[in-house]
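Render this sequence as a predicted structure.
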Amino acid sequence: MKSKIFESKIREDIVSKVLEAKKKQQPYSNSPVAGKQHSAKGLIVHARHVWRSGYGRGQSRVPRKIFSRRGSQFNWQGAEVPQAKGGMRAHPPKITQFTRDLKINKKELKIALLSSISATASEKYILKKYSTIDKLDKKTPFIVSSDLMKKKTKEMLNELKNTLGNLYFISIKEKSVRAGRGKMRGRKYQTNAGMILIIGKDEKLKTGLFDVKKANELSVSDLAKGGLGRVAVYTEKAVKELEDKLGENKK
């Protein structure tokens, strides 16, 4: 079964443009009250005959907090400003610097998705992405019957092994202990991406062996993140839905 959606012209430039626009970084910033949780008076007044005046003391006009006093004599210490102990940071990260407003045209999104799908059926791009493999045993694209969803795990894996050939061994997710200090920093384990199985919107499959995505939710990031040519297996229903969604191959 060969579909026209696997024969689109692969536009690497548009795919990279879409991936750049879809990049996300978790925003972070300091607390809005960082360095301000104290009873500092604020800027010290240097006028004469004013309560708490800093007149004649040779002190700079920075916010200060009072530790002790004796009559009108105060024991002050600088606070809040960056150079003071416990003060705020001079130029902390701000939420606004993480907001991205990059937009992509609908036609470009469609071209990028078609290109990503075509790359999953291109032996050239698959071999380029998985450099440890010299040649593919099976023909692309990899399309399986929708009956795969009803089979038990062992039978399903055997069918995938027959479908993928020598790509099967890099298609199943493997978990390993990370080397280096990352083990102590909340990322002890690392996994490979593995393959992705694209299914129809009415089909269901729950597994941790590989990624599963419905055809109507498929995005460029699912297929092209990390490089074009990811190992992808499509069910017959998924191919039909993608044909209906994307239409004919339009240049």
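Summary. The mean pLDDT is 88. Strands lie at 64-70, 73-78, 142-144, 175-177, 189-191, 196-199, 211-214, 232-235.
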